[in-house]
Amino acid sequence: MELQAGTIVTLTVKNEQEYGWFLMDEEENSVLLHKSEVREGFDPNEPVEVFLYQDHSGRLAATMDKPLVTLGEYAWTEVVGEEIKLGVFVDIGISKDALVSEDDLPYKYEVRPIEGDKLYCTLKLDKNGRLFAKPATEEKIWEIAKRANKTDLNKGFSGIVYRTGKAGSWIITDDQYRAFLHPTQREDEPRVGQTVTGRIIDVHDDGSVNVSLLGRRHERQLEDSEEVYDYLMTRGGQMPYSDKSLPEEIEKRFGLSKGAFKRALGKLMKEGKAYQEDGWTYAGSKPKSGE
């Protein structure tokens, strides 16, 4: 059997060259261990364990570095770069990064992983024998997923998005729960590979969960009211917006739905920080008649 990229093998030294050592297996298939890939403990008189990969020229090569992943084995890898129309590169623990083909990435560029994001990957060979990194399938995620309990409801979580689609986004949490994020439970669509935080809003019988990236209602209302009040004060305590304003005007100015704007405004009015009159909103309490 020929030596194969993506595998860890134990070989013996065949001979030394100026730029490294040729290693061979029992069938005398050989591969180069370049001097730059030799690590502490190497003894040319002893068998050596190496990882096989393709160098930058596409030739099979060996390294004594231990990879994070091999063919059929999975691990979290960090995105370290991208190449338009090719895909993204991930660090697999050796001197050469592995390419995740754009065929294995989301169609929308906006949700593709960027540098620093994490992908749960394995290694694969294409039909030409070239080595690639490949994100885990849904079936693989189910294999590593743990069951959430009903007591996890409303708990906070942190996790990494591993898949996205029209229906929403799928996340594996730090506790290894498989989580689903519906578009109504987020403000912006997260990238695949992005770390997100939020809370668990439902626990299913199969142990998977639904999550939200939105703050609890009173927390969001506080943030929204602060934003509206800050804008009001930048205009000298008066603004041409009220609960009678059109939804599109509110969305354009504040980035809020009309319902959220009315709740924020209601909070300010209840606290005596604002009042409305003739379609305008003013800072402070409404003057009493005759004042």
UniProtKB/TrEMBL annotation:
Matching InterPro entries: CvfB_fam, CvfB_S1_2nd, CvfB_S1_3rd, CvfB_S1_st, CvfB_WH, NA-bd_OB-fold, S1_domain, WH-like_DNA-bd_sf
Top-rank taxon, per record: Bacteria
Signal peptide feature range: none
S1 motif domain segment(s): 4-65, 152-214
Record PANTHER family: CONSERVED VIRULENCE FACTOR B
Family, per entry: Belongs to the CvfB family.
The protein's name in its UniProt record: S1 motif domain-containing protein
GO terms for MF: nucleic acid binding
